[in-house]
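Subject: design request, 196 residues
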């Protein structure tokens, strides 16, 4: 009997951005990332929970979610994205990136390092649609309570809320952990997870 190869480390990540404002490209202002090992969240493994510098004079879209208004001074004093980049890149070279609706995170990374590509991505949005067809809403903040995961998420990230990058990264990781515990998904391979 053959068994599928074990899953590699996975890094669930989320960026919050300034959004589109005419004449100002969208910049990331917060990064959250958490590792899954063996398909389970590992909070002892390398993770990211940081603001990223955006000048105080840089406009945010009126539609940009998150607590950026209350934290503008901290964001202006935060490390530049490129200061965080070496550690993030090293982690992404050792783990497969995971995001919910991964296009956003892929675009941010492509702007930070245009010549850098990661060959595999796991996107929990199409996976959730495959695993739980017929739901009304597949947004991360809708899926978590629908699947009964909100108490655990609150335990993992007390005091945080949706559109906080670390909260959303942990929520994405928790969603994937839950999916991998479902019948029919327990032996999923990386190839199964990257088919979207």
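Subject: RE: design request

Done. Sequence follows.
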């Amino acid at each position: 009997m053959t068994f599928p190869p074990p899953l590699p480390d996975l890094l669930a990540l989320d960026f919050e951005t300034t959004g589109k404002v005419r004449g100002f490209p969208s910049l990331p202002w917060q990064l959250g990332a958490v590792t899954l090992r063996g398909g389970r969240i590992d909070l002892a493994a390398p993770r990211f929970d940081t603001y990223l510098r955006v000048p105080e004079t840089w406009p945010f879209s009126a539609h940009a979610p998150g607590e950026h208004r209350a934290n503008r001074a901290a964001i202006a004093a935060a490390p530049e994205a490129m200061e965080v980049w070496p550690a993030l890149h090293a982690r992404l070279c050792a783990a497969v990136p995971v995001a919910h609706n991964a296009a956003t995170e892929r675009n941010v990374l492509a702007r930070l390092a245009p010549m850098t590509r990661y060959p595999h991505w796991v996107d929990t949005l199409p996976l959730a649609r495959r695993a739980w067809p017929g739901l009304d809403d597949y947004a991360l903040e809708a899926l978590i309570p629908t699947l009964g995961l909100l108490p655990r998420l609150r335990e993992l990230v007390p005091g945080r809320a949706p559109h906080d990058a670390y909260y959303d990264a942990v929520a994405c990781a928790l969603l994937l952990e839950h999916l991998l515990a479902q019948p029919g998904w327990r032996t999923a391979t990386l190839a199964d997870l990257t088919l979207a």
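The chain has a mean pLDDT of 93.
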